[in-house]
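Q: Here's a chain of 276 amino acids. Please give me its 3D structure as tokens.
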Amino acid sequence: MTIAELLRKLQGELSPLLGEFAQSDAELIIGYSLNISRTQIYTGCEKKITGRDLNRIESIVKRRLSGEPLQYILGSVYFYDREFFVNRDVLIPRPDTETLVETVLNAEKSSEAVFVDIGTGSGILAAVLTANNPAWTAVAVDISFKALRVASRNIPNNVKPLCADMLSAFKQTEKFDFLVSNPPYISLSQMQTLDKSVADYEPHGALFGGEDGLGFYRTISVSAPMVLKDNGRIYLEIGYDQGESVPEILYGNGWKNISVIKDLADRDRVVKANYK
């Protein structure tokens, strides 16, 4: 079987599950299995594929058809401007979170800064922010030791992983320039309607934000001021329907200059604010 024939075969098998995204997944599976680029898939489309490679590809397709996310199968995800390691111990990074990255990079102009990434998961936020500002340093916090093992493979040396429940491990003498977080924000009712590929494979602890989805924002709103420098900033990813509720929580706890930033789909996605 040639690469071209295999590509058509995989598209046909994946279409019932993925629709218009079948071609993209088929390309990723072939590229990963044969260790070739997307361009090489098409420039070498008449190349024959060996039985061993076909067996590997068939195994991946079988897992994908069962609903398992391709990112977990391949062990990687492309986010912002690079690839990161992921597995089922962490949430799969979404393109929406790039709005959070852009918001921080556009707002924080200091050449040096120290920040905390709360609920770091795979470590992508701390990794991307420090990659774009090498003089910045960070602490990547997560309550899950398994998640931190994943993050440790993604974060650079100027990011320190810390296993803790949010900000509970910090002393009030430790002060940071800003905090960033993509906390769990799915409500109890929304958890019941999650797509099977999310509900069955991604860690619920990284999704469930309490009965109304706002539990972590309440905690961060109260605890963050204790570890921030004067006029410290906070940057939070929010659910598309939380553009009013999260600012209300922050207002009620003394935050100011609160603004809501929309993502590329024109949905509320990020809240930023200052304290004092």
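Q: Can you summarize the key feature?
A: The radius of gyration is 21 Å.
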